[in-house]
Design brief:
4-stranded antiparallel sheet, Rossmann fold, single chain, 8-stranded mixed sheet
C-alpha cells in the first residue's frame, strides 16, 4: 500500500501547500446529488434524481437526448415504507406512477408538457412503495404500509389506474419485491416475519393464475432471498444466500445457484433494488462485489462473461432494452452517473451525472485493505492524506445500518478531509454486507463490541504500516455509525476525539421507540434486554459516559423520529457533567439523515474546526 505522493493539497490545519485550491464544504455538499430507480419506458429512460440544493427528489424522463422533469414544484418522489423506502416510482402505459414524499400517496403523471400529477390513492394512514407495473393487468403492484389503531399492517396490493384497490396477499409481517410475469399469470414476492430481518431469513412465494400459492424457498430459517424476477420466458429467478453468498438462482431450472462465490447484492435496507436482470437469451446482467469493489458483468448462460464499464466500481438500478444496458454507476473519481452501455460494442455513454469534480491529482483513490482483528480478517478502504506530513492524522468513517457497507466510490466528503491533511479509513467492519453471509452474520449479538475491536485494529494496522500517526486518530459516524463511534470512544484506547451525527446513545430507548421494521433488530444485534441486561449496560454509551475521556461533537436533527433529540441531549449532558469539552449542534428542520446542502456544508466546517482545536 502506498500513499499518493503526487497530489498537492492543504495540510492538517487547513494551511495550503502550493497553489492548489481547496475542495470546499459547499462544493462537497453540492456534490451529494444522486440517482435512483431506473426504468426503461416510453422510448427512453425514467429515473429519480436527488438534488441537495432543492432537498427533494424529482422524476425525470430522458428521451432522444433530452432530459425533462415530470414532477412539478411541490412534489418529491420518496417512499417511507419501512421508514427507508425505495421503489417509489415505475413506468405505466401512458406515463409514470410515483409516491409523493409529503403525503406518501400514489400519483400518476403523464408525459405531456402540461400534464400535472393526479392522485391515485387517498388513504392518509397508508404509505406505498416497491412499485411495479403489470401491463397485462393495467394495474400497479405495491407494498402498502397501513398505520391502524391496532398496529402497522403490511400488504401486497393491486391498484388499478382508476384508483381501484385489491388486496392480493396479507398475513406476513413484511413484504418486498412483488413482481408479475409478463402475461400476468404468475405473481411472486418475498415475505418474512418478526423477529427476522430481510438479510437474515425470508421466503420466496409464488401464486399462479388459479390462485394456488406456495413457498418456493426459505421455508426454514437461515436463508435470505431478495429481488425475484421473471425472465421473458416466464421462468422465475431470485437472489439467495443459501450457498453463503447472494447469488442468482433460477427456481424453474434446477437446484444450482448461478454465479461465482461473491455477493451480487447488498443488504436490502431499501425496497426496489435491482442488481441483476435475466436476459432474453438465457444470460444475465449482474453486478457483484469482489473485495468490496463492484463489477458489472454480462453472462451468456454457458459460463462465459464479459465485464462492462470497468472504470466504475459500484452499480445499481440495472435496466435493459433491445440495444442497451442501463445502470447507475459510481467511480472513485466521478460523481454518480446514469450509464447507457451498447449491448453489441460494450461502449458506455454517460446520460446524466458522471462529472469529474476535481483533477485526478487532487483525488485520493480508495485502496482496499484487510487486517487482522479478533483472530479474523476485517476490511476497509484507505484514502491517503494529501500534504507534506509523513504520518498524518487519521479520520475513521463508520457506515450506518449497521448491516450495510461503504463503497469505493467518490464520496464528496473524503477529499474535503484528505486535502486538509487527514487520511481517511472507511471501514467495512465485521458485520458489513458485501463479503458473504458468514461475515454479515458476525454482527449478531456483537454490536457495540466487534466493530470497536475492528476500529482499534484498523488504526493499529495503518500506524504499523507507517501510513498514519497512531496518536492522532478520530472516529465519526452517523446513526448506527454514531453509536459505534461512541462505543469506540468509551471502549478503545488511543482515540483523540470524535463526532456523532444523530447517533444512538441509548439502545434501549431506541428499542422502545423504533418502528416495526427494526422492532426486533436490537435483540439480534445485542441480545434480549432482560436476559442480556449486563450486555446492554456495557454497550450503552449513555451509561458508559464516564469512560469517554476525549472531546466530542454532536449533530442532531430536530425532527428526527428515530434518534430523538432528547436522546442525544442526554448524552451531551452526561459528558458535560464529567467535565468534557463537548459541542452540540441542533438543526430544527432536519430529520434522521441531513438533506439540506447548507447544513451538510456547515457540519463539515464545524467538524473540521473542532478537530483543528484538538490538533494544536
Amino acid at each position: 500500500m502506498r500513499t499518493n505522493d503526487s497530489a498537492v493539497a492543504p495540510g492538517a490545519h487547513g494551511a495550503p501547500y502550493g497553489e492548489a485550491p481547496l475542495w470546499s464544504a459547499q462544493q462537497a455538499a453540492a456534490a451529494s446529488r444522486d440517482f435512483a430507480e431506473l426504468h426503461v419506458a416510453h422510448g427512453g429512460l425514467l429515473w429519480v434524481e436527488f438534488d441537495p440544493q432543492r432537498a427533494r427528489c424529482g422524476l425525470f424522463l430522458y428521451r432522444d437526448g433530452t432530459l425533462r422533469e415530470l414532477t412539478p414544484p411541490g412534489f418529491s418522489v420518496r417512499s417511507r415504507v419501512y421508514e427507508y423506502g425505495g421503489g417509489a416510482c415505475c413506468a405505466t402505459s401512458d406515463g409514470a406512477a410515483f409516491v409523493n414524499e409529503t403525503d406518501q400517496q400514489l400519483h400518476l403523471v403523464g408525459l405531456g408538457v402540461d400534464d400535472g400529477p393526479r392522485a391515485l390513492t387517498a388513504r392518509p394512514h397508508c404509505r406505498y412503495g416497491d412499485l411495479s407495473y403489470v401491463a397485462a393487468w393495467q394495474a400497479l403492484l405495491a407494498v402498502e404500509e397501513s398505520h391502524e389503531p391496532g398496529g402497522v399492517i403490511h400488504r401486497l396490493l393491486r391498484i388499478g389506474l382508476d384508483g381501484s384497490r385489491r388486496v392480493l396477499v396479507e398475513g406476513a409481517d413484511f413484504y418486498a419485491g412483488p413482481v408479475a410475469s409478463a402475461d400476468g399469470t404468475q405473481l411472486a414476492w418475498i415475505e418474512w416475519d418478526r423477529p427476522q430481518q430481510p438479510w437474515t431469513a425470508t421466503r420466496l412465494c409464488r401464486r399462479m393464475a388459479d390462485g394456488a400459492a406456495q413457498v418456493l424457498a426459505g421455508a426454514g430459517a437461515g436463508q435470505s432471498l431478495q429481488q425475484p424476477r421473471f425472465a421473458s420466458d416466464g421462468r422465475l429467478w431470485v437472489l439467495t444466500d443459501r450457498t453463503g453468498w447472494w447469488q442468482p438462482l433460477c427456481i424453474d431450472a434446477g437446484p444450482c445457484a448461478h454465479g461465482a462465490p461473491y455477493d451480487h447484492a447488498a443488504a436490502p435496507w431499501q425496497l426496489g433494488g435491482c442488481t441483476y436482470l435475466p436476459l432474453a437469451d438465457g444470460g444475465l446482467l449482474l453486478t457483484r462485489f469482489e473485495q468490496g469493489f463492484g463489477l458489472l458483468l454480462e453472462q451468456d448462460g454457458q459460463g462465459g462473461e464479459r465485464r462492462l464499464a470497468a472504470e466504475f466500481s459500484r452499480f445499481r438500478g440495472l435496466a435493459a432494452d433491445a440495444t442497451h444496458f442501463y445502470c447507475i454507476a459510481g467511480s472513485p473519481s466521478r460523481l454518480p452517473a446514469v450509464l447507457a452501455i451498447n449491448r453489441q460494442t460494450g461502449a458506455a455513454q454517460v446520460l446524466a451525472g458522471g462529472e469529474q469534480p476535481l483533477p485526478a491529482a487532487a483525488i485520493s483513490r480508495p485502496q482496499a485493505f484487510d487486517y487482522a482483528s479478533g483472530g479474523e480478517r476485517a476490511h476497509g478502504f484507505f484514502y491517503a492524506a494529501q500534504g507534506n506530513e509523513a504520518r498524518p492524522p487519521l479520520l475513521i468513517f463508520l457506515h450506518g445500518g449497521p448491516t450495510s457497507a461503504c463503497y469505493p466510490v467518490f464520496d464528496p466528503r473524503i477529499p474535503f478531509w484528505t486535502q486538509r491533511g487527514f487520511a481517511v479509513a472507511d471501514l467495512n467492519y465485521r458485520g458489513s454486507s458485501g463479503y458473504g453471509r458468514a461475515y454479515r452474520q458476525r454482527l449478531q449479538g456483537e454490536w457495540g463490541r466487534i466493530e470497536v475491536e475492528d476500529i482499534q485494529a484498523a488504526a493499529a494496522h495503518l500506524a504499523t504500516e507507517g501510513l498514519i500517526d497512531g496518536a492522532r486518530v478520530f472516529v465519526r459516524g452517523a446513526s448506527a455509525g454514531g453509536y459505534s463511534a461512541l462505543c469506540a470512544l468509551a471502549g478503545a484506547s488511543g482515540l483523540r476525539g470524535g463526532a456523532s451525527l444523530y447517533g444512538v446513545s441509548d439502545p434501549l430507548a431506541l428499542r422502545r421507540a423504533t418502528h416495526k421494521f427494526e422492532a426486533d433488530y436490537l435483540d439480534w444485534l445485542i441480545g434480549d434486554p432482560e436476559r442480556d441486561a449486563a450486555r446492554y449496560r456495557e454497550r450503552t454509551p449513555l451509561l458508559q459516559a464516564a469512560r469517554i475521556r476525549v472531546p466530542l461533537i454532536f449533530f442532531q436533527g430536530g425532527l428526527d423520529a428515530v434518534v430523538v433529540p432528547a436522546q442525544t441531549e442526554s448524552m451531551v449532558a452526561a459528558l458535560r457533567g464529567n467535565g468534557l469539552a463537548v459541542e452540540y449542534h441542533l438543526y430544527p428542520d432536519e430529520r434522521h439523515g441531513f438533506r439540506q446542502a447548507t447544513h451538510l456544508a456547515e457540519v463539515l466546517e464545524r467538524e473540521l474546526a473542532f478537530y483543528g482545536k484538538l490538533l494544536r
